[in-house]
Specification:
Blueprint lengths: L4 E6 L9 H15 L4 E6 L5 H13 L3 E7 L7 E2 L2 E3 L26 E3 L4 H10 L14 H15 L7 E7 L7 H17 L13
Parallel strand pairs: 1-2, 1-3, 3-7
Antiparallel strand pairs: 4-7, 5-6
Helix pairs in contact: 1-5, 2-4, 3-5
Length: 209
C-alpha cells in the first residue's frame, strides 16, 4: 500500500505531562484519513540521535510521498514551518536520555545545512487564509527538533532509494496559544498543500518569523 504521509511528533519532555506536537499529530491523522489519504504516525523520543534513527527507519519502511515532523516551540505565537536545518547539536537542557551535547554535528560528513523541501510559504498562506496564526521560521534551534529535521533532510538528500520523497519540519506553539484541535486542522491544511504544491509560492514581506 502506498503511504501518502508520515507524520511524527515528540514524547513529553522536561517534566511536562504531554507534548503538543504529538497531540496535534494524533488528532490530525484521522482527519487526513477521512480525506482519503494513507497516513502513518510515529511518536519520537526526545533524544539526540535516537529520534532521527527511528524516523529514518520509518521512512525506509513506509516510503511515504511526504514526511512532516512536528515539534513544540513553547515560546512562539503561531504555527511555524521551518525553512533551514543546521548541522549542530547544542543542548540548553538535557534530552530525555540525559545527553547534553554542545557544538557537536548531527552528521559528521554532512553540509552546514539543508533547506526544507516542503512549500513552507504556501503552507503559511493556507493557514493565514483560515485565520490560523502562522509564519515561516528561519531556525529550528539546536535541540532535538533541529536534530530530527537535519537527520531527515540528510537522509532524503543522500539515500538514492528515497529519491522523490519530500520532507520538513513544523513547530507548533503551546496549547494556550494554539489549541490542539486548531493545530491538528493546521497540520491537515499544510499536508494537503504540500501534496499538491511542488514549487513554493513566494509571499510578500512581513510573513517571516
Amino acid at each position: 500500500m502506498t503511504t501518502d504521509v508520515l507524520l511524527t511528533g515528540f514524547a513529553p519532555f522536561a517534566g511536562a505531562a504531554v507534548n503538543e506536537s504529538w497531540e496535534s499529530v494524533r488528532d490530525a491523522a484521522p482527519l487526513l484519513r477521512a480525506d482519503g489519504l494513507t497516513v502513518v504516525t510515529l511518536e519520537l523520543p526526545v533524544e539526540f540521535g535516537r529520534a532521527g534513527d527511528l524516523l529514518a527507519a520509518a521512512v525506509r519502511t513506509h516510503r511515504p510521498s511526504l514526511v512532516v515532523a512536528v515539534g513544540l516551540a513553547a515560546g512562539r505565537t503561531g504555527i511555524t514551518p521551518e525553512r533551514v536545518a543546521v548541522n549542530v547539536r547544542d543542548a540548553r537542557i538535557p534530552d530525555n536520555a540525559g545527553a547534553s551535547p554542545v557544538d557537536e554535528p548531527v552528521a559528521a560528513d554532512g553540509p552546514v545545512g539543508y533547506f526544507s523541501t516542503l512549500p513552507v510559504k504556501a503552507m503559511v498562506a493556507a493557514l493565514a487564509a483560515d485565520g490560523i496564526p502562522a509564519a515561516v521560521s528561519q531556525t529550528a534551534g539546536t535541540y532535538v527538533c533541529n536534530d530530527v529535521f537535519y537527520a531527515l533532510q540528510h537522509l532524503l538528500a543522500t539515500d538514492e532509494a528515497l529519491a522523490g520523497i519530500r520532507g520538513g519540519f513544523v513547530h507548533v506553539p503551546a496549547a494556550d496559544v494554539v489549541g490542539s484541535p486548531t493545530a491538528a486542522r493546521a497540520l491537515v491544511a499544510m499536508v494537503e498543500v504540500a501534496l499538491r504544491t511542488v514549487v513554493d509560492a513566494p509571499l510578500a514581506g512581513g510573513a517571516e518569523h
